[in-house]
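Worked example (supplementary).
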Amino acid sequence: MESEHDRPTAAEAADALTEAEASRTTLAHAITTPSWCFTSLGAAVAVQIGLAAVGFADGALLPVAAGLAVFAAVAGVQLARFRRRNGVWLGGFASRVVLGSAAPASVAYALALAAAIWAAAGEHWWLVALWSAAGGAGYALGGRRWLRTYRAEPAAHGRGESAAWLALVALAAVGGAVLLAAGA
Amino acid sequence: MAELDAQIAAPARLKLMTTLTAVSEAEFATVRDALEVSDSVLSKHLAALEDAGYVRRRKGVHRGRRTTWIALTPRGRKALSAHVAALRELIRGVD
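After joint prediction of all chains, the assembly is encoded as:
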C-alpha cells in the first residue's frame, strides 16, 4: 500500500475520479450499433415467432428449426459486425439486445409467441403475422432502450449475464421448443 | 478507512481500469485511443496491472490483423471498487 507521501489530496482524488469516469463515459458513448442492427434483429425474431407458431400448430419440427436457424444467423452476423465496428466485446449487448434477456424484449417476445401460437392453433394466419411483427418490434425497441440505459450507466450494464448462463438458457429454450413441437 | 491500492494509485491506471469497466473486453487500439496515450505508455501500465492480476491480455484478431484484447479480471474489478471507495472517503474527508 502507498505511503502518506503518495496519498493524494481530496482535490487530486476528485480530479482523478472525474477524469476516469469521463473517459469511461466517452468510450460508452462512442459505441454504436451496426447499420440495420435493430431492424434485422426484429425481423429475424418476427420470422422465428411466425415459424415457431406454424410449427407448433402443425406439429412439425422443421419450421421451428428453420426459425431458430434464421435468428441464429442474423444474431451471429450482428455480433460480429458490432465487435468489428467498435473494437470491444460487450456482454450486455450480446445478452440483453441480441439474445433478448432485457425485460422489455423478453416480455414482448414471450407474449407475442404465446399469442401467435394461439392464433395459429385457430388458423388465424393474419393474426400470426401480426403477433410475429409485434414481437419483433418489441424485441428491437427493447434493444434500443437497453443501449440508452447502458450509455447512462456503462459499468452497471456493460457485462450482462455470463456465457455459461446464456448457454444454459439457450439450451433450455431450444429443448422446450422441440418438446412443444413434438407434443403438438 | 478503506485502503488506497498502490497499483491503481497513478491516475492513468485508475483511468485505464475505470474505462475497462464499460466493456467485457476491448482491443488494444480502442483502449489507447480512448485514453489518448501512446502504445508504449499503455503497454507499460498494462504489464504492471497484469502482474498484479488486475487485467488479462490475450492475443486475437481485429479487422484481419493480429492484436491484443484486454479485460479486467474479477480481482481487478474488486480492487478498483475498493480503491474508488477509498478515494470517495478521502474526498469526503473521512479518516
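Two points are worth noting when inspecting this output. Residues 32 and 79 of chain B are 22 Å apart (CA to CA). The mean pLDDT of chain B is 93.
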